[in-house]
Write the structure tokens for this entry.
Amino acid sequence: MLALFLVAGGLSLARAESPTAGAAFTAGLYSLLAVVLFRFTAGNVWRYAVEYRDAGGAWSDLPFLAPFVVAAAVGAAVLLPGGSLGSAAWAAFWGFVVAAGLASAAVWLAVGYRESGRSDPLG
């Protein structure tokens, strides 16, 4: 986290026209925002992985890996034609969120139908 804070602050100061107190304050805010966004993103991805594993899945399952593949593809599709790294990261994040939601719904429906086929409704 410290490295991310320092890199984000350094990049912000490098873009400043002159090293003023306002530029230092802005760099500090930019650094804090970068750390918060990183913690939010890394934390959500880690929670997704742990919850999937706790539910009995393996990290090599296709429903688990599909959102990562979609996120990489969406990020590359935005970055390669000349988009910015920030837009690519933003698009990849939302690609991951949408793909994870769709994969979760599909798995939930598949498991529900499979479980309903095993039970005897008459007891």
Notes: The CA atoms of residues 38 and 93 lie 11 Å apart. The radius of gyration is 21 Å.
